[in-house]
Amino acid sequence: MRKYLIWSLVIFMTWSCSPSAQELFEEGIRLLESSQYQKSIEYFDRALDKNPEFTSALNAKGVALFQQGKYDEAIEAFTASIEIDPESYKPFFNRGNAYLEKKAFKEALVDYNMANGLDPKQVDIYYNRGLALLGLEEYEDAIFDFDVVLQANPNHALAQFNKAKAQLGNNDPVGAMESLSNTVNLDNRNGAAYYLLGVTQMSAFGQKEDGCTNLKMALSLGFTEAKTWIDDFCAE
């Protein structure tokens, strides 16, 4: 799946009798990395009590809230981090991801554009921005972003799959067939990709036999939407 959140890597250090904001932050990171999200927030809050402008602690707190599905609270934390330090791409990227989960695609796109402007080398930004553009039906721009990802990693199966969806939206079934074939070659457990491949083969190219084969594969992988097509078009 897509990589959602970014926080600073740190080295764990032995606490003194009265832990500093940095030490509290580091313990929070340790708890965050072990999926103890609520406990990590307690440490980030203690770090922020000592240093209210500790932007990394605000960003990491947002990550912990995001992981709990508390997207509005996460957005508040990321926004506070941005207000203190607007030069870091991380809270913009993370806030964009929270908006993406809320299907607030326009807001996500604004944040991804900001993150990209601050650090254009981060490939994850292009992938997630592609998802937001796909949600906005901005298909050509989405294809561009997925292509950037695939130039960096041609074996990114989800980038291939989402590029195919954008190509279908952009009325390019030939390109979509290639991307979907690449997807299933890279990930033979993606039932949705087999489904789209089968539907495209049948509806755009009249390839009933190959289409039915892929639809049946989709159904075998648990993609139940394929059953209607199979019942309607693939009966023996």
Q: What order do the helices and strands come in, and which of them pair?
A:
Layout: H1 21-33, H2 37-50, H3 55-67, H4 71-84, H5 89-101, H6 105-118, H7 123-135, H8 139-152, H9 157-169, H10 173-186, H11 191-205, H12 208-220, H13 226-233
Give a quick set of tags describing it.
single chain; 236 residues; mainly alpha; Serine Threonine Protein Phosphatase 5, Tetratricopeptide repeat; 2 domains; 13 helices; elongated
- Class by helix and strand content? mainly alpha
Shape: elongated
- Largest sheet geometry: none
Low-confidence stretches: 9-13
Order of helices and strands: HHHHHHHHHHHHH
Plain-language structure description:
By secondary structure, this protein is an all-alpha fold. The chain has 2 domains: 1-8 and 19-120, Serine Threonine Protein Phosphatase 5, Tetratricopeptide repeat; 137-236, Tetratricopeptide repeat domain (Serine Threonine Protein Phosphatase 5, Tetratricopeptide repeat, Alpha Horseshoe), CATH 1.25.40. Helices cover 72% and strands 0% of the residues. It is built from 13 helices and no strands. Helix 1 runs parallel beside helix 3 and helix 9 runs antiparallel to helix 10 (173-186). It is elongated. The model is unreliable at 9-13 (pLDDT under 50). It comes from Cecembia calidifontis.
